[in-house]
Amino acid sequence: MLSLSPDDREACARDLREAITSEDPSLLAAEFTAWKETATAIAEGVDCKELEWLDPSDDACVVTRPA
Q1: pLDDT for 6-64, tens place per residue?
Q2: Domain interval for residue 45
Q3: Please, are residues 58 and 65 in contact by the beta-carbon 8 Å criterion?
Q4: What is the number of structural domains in the chain?
Q5: In this structure, are residues 35 and 13 in contact, taking their beta carbons and an 8 Å threshold?
Q6: DSSP secondary structure, the chain, as one string
Q7: What is the pLDDT of residue 11?
């Protein structure tokens, strides 16, 4: 969780507190898993800050559909 930004840590804590108060164990597990996977992805360098979008008009991006 240390890879999360301070704002994300606050959001994580808030979401987990809300899940705990819901008294639904599956919601708590889902929230925890989602935040853990997000932190893991960020720690491994996967983030959405600099996406490279493909240009659909570029013929190099066109792939034929398998039959």
Answers
A1: 999 999 999 999 999 998 999 999 999 999 999 999 998 887 677 777 777 777 777 78
A2: 6-56
A3: no
A4: 1
A5: no
A6: -TTS-HHHHHHHHHHHHHHHHTT-HHHHHHHHHHHHHHHHHHHTT--SSS-----TT-GGG--PPP-
A7: 95
